[in-house]
Amino acid sequence: MTCSPGSLAFGQAVDGIDPVLSVTCTNTGTSNVGSGSPVTLILTPTTSSSAFSAAFDEVSDPYPPGGLPPGQSAQIDVTYHPSGTSNDTGTLATASNAGRGQGVQIPLSGQSLNVPPCQFAILPSALDFGNVTRDGGAEPDLSFSVENLGSAECLVKDLVLQDPTSSFRIISTSPQVDPTTGWITIPPSSGAASAMQVDVAFLPGEIGDAGAATGQVDFWISNPTKTEQSVALRGTSGSPCLVYVPSTLDFGSVGTNDAGAPCESAALTISVFNQCSTNATLQSVTLQSGSGDTVAQFSVPTPSGMALGGSPQTYTVTFLPTTLGTHTAQLAFSEGAVDTLVRVSGTAVATPTQTDSFVTGPPKVDFLFVRDIGDDSSSEAAVAAAMVDFLDAGASADYRLAVTTVDDPDEPEPNYGGWLQPCPWCHAVGPSPIIVSPSSTLDGGSDPDPAGAFDDLLGAGGSPFLDVGNSKDKHLTEALFEALERDPRPGLDFFRPGAYFAVINESDPNDSDGSFILHPEAWFQNFVAAWFIDPALFSWTYINYTYPITGPGLSNPDALPPEIDTMVAATNGLALNLADTNWTQAFLALWPAINTANLRYYLSSTPPAGGNGMAVTINGAAAPSAGWSYDGSVNAVIFAPGSAPQNGDQVKVTYPIGCP
């Protein structure tokens, strides 16, 4: 008979928490162990010290009553009973009729630590990663912390990831495991928080039809009544029907009342849209508090339980700080198999006022060209040629240009309209999108040539694809929706907050036809209105070569398909006809609206209604009250054109942030 391992070292163990290690004994002979004579197997293993105890495991390789047949094993569990502060040793003894009756002796050792019970909090108690697709993007990571709330150190051991779908991984722990003791030590708190942080990443593995991956991080902690702890993990990888706008809520700063308690914020709104052709139901909303918050700091919307159709539903969230400082959390909206996260944040401060500082710069504008992949090359060439004069007219602006497309019906999935070009599986294949700016150069060139760089980007797909008019055709409004819904990749300088966003659709009659459009025009209009903090920061321009002209370069709105007409009219955009020689001159009419948007300064927090008590300065001098106004609907100070700050001017807006 042989037993393995040959020794058991329990290392450091805490008084009151009894760890268990196992030994496996195997009949390596040719006769039954325990069934022969004259020696009979001693059925109960023994230990030489009361600090240890041993017994056959009743589940894993249990000892059979009739003895061990050749090749069979039995597991013996040895428990260490640490007490006080001591170094304990002993021996596990097993006897049998094997080896002429000679027993097996296995050395035992352990060090007992007399540590007061750890007083701790796990924040948050669960991690929900929301919905993540395997699209070549970075795997998201979240963290939880084990905070030491007491005056004695906390010891953590045996941090183990339970991950049946191979979708999660532990990135790091801080502090790290002591290689000698195997413990992670969390020092006692001394005013500031003292905690162990565990970073976990999620990238969907084999999650099956349910669409949800679940797991947990298990660990032991030095509290005899709460020894075994776990943090639940969840993430989904599916096709969501519901879209949440905005995807983040920032409450800015709130002040305190006369008693010094933090104020409750004004409510912010989340709009929920159904992007599918069938009903979808919001089943639950849960709050995952950030590190340091043992109680919820934000309200949690209650789902109505109703199926969502074409009209959006709205939910309100309020910042409810209980302590001063910055608080973060995330709301997990679940459709069942798909979760979507909305991140929320807010800061409670003791000061009665907030000052937002700005340095006036050139107008910021992001142009997104939605390209019809079925157009002929002459359309692309006309748009590219017009960009020389167009960008010259906006030479003083800080602009970015990107290109997306409708779906290509001839290409296999994944073939997503709305991806910025190039992308890993687009017809314009590339590792990451190309963003054209005033400093962009042509390949091999040294001087800025943004119009040339845009020409290359617009024609990156090569020869035009053939429109076959099947159900995979995507309307250009859908391509815009998908481009907006898809969050920018890290480091991608596009869709900049506060920048004017100009969408320019270059299309032919097939993509102007509403026969393949999933939603009515009002759906897109509502989505755009909810997406942008200010309607004045958005315009929709339509470029075509089919519809008749009523003015210099302008198409007749009455002849436009209703979904196009609605978007153009609602956003003060343009409808341009490439067949008219004046269309490029009309195109320049976008710049006045872009320059006007630079007169708006968006505040980080919410002042009292009407902006009462607000003060505005330019380079330290009070701005004339007749030259500016406060618009509470977009939370911005808006200057009159004749009173606008100039490039380089420093603008400061000071306002009260007490309780509403």
The biggest beta sheet, please?
A: 5 strands, mixed
Portion in helices: 10-25%
What is the CATH C-level name of the largest domain? Alpha Beta
Number of helices: 8
Shape: elongated
The share of residues in extended strands comes to 35-45%
Q: CATH superfamily assignment of the largest domain?
A: von Willebrand factor, type A domain
Number of domains: 5
Number of strands: 40
- The rounded Rg comes to 33 Å
What does this structure look like?
With 660 residues, this protein is mostly beta strands. The chain is built from 8 helices and 40 strands. Helix 1 (377-393) links the parallel strand 28 (364-371) and strand 29. The longest helix is centred in the middle third of the chain and has 17 residues, at 377-393. The radius of gyration is 33 Å and the shape is elongated. The termini are far apart. Residues 462-473 have low confidence and may be disordered.
Features:
mainly beta, 5 domains, Immunoglobulin-like, about 650 residues, five-stranded parallel β-sheet
How would you summarize this macromolecular structure in one to three sentences?
This protein is mainly β and 660 residues long. β28, α1 and β29 (398-405) form a beta-alpha-beta unit.
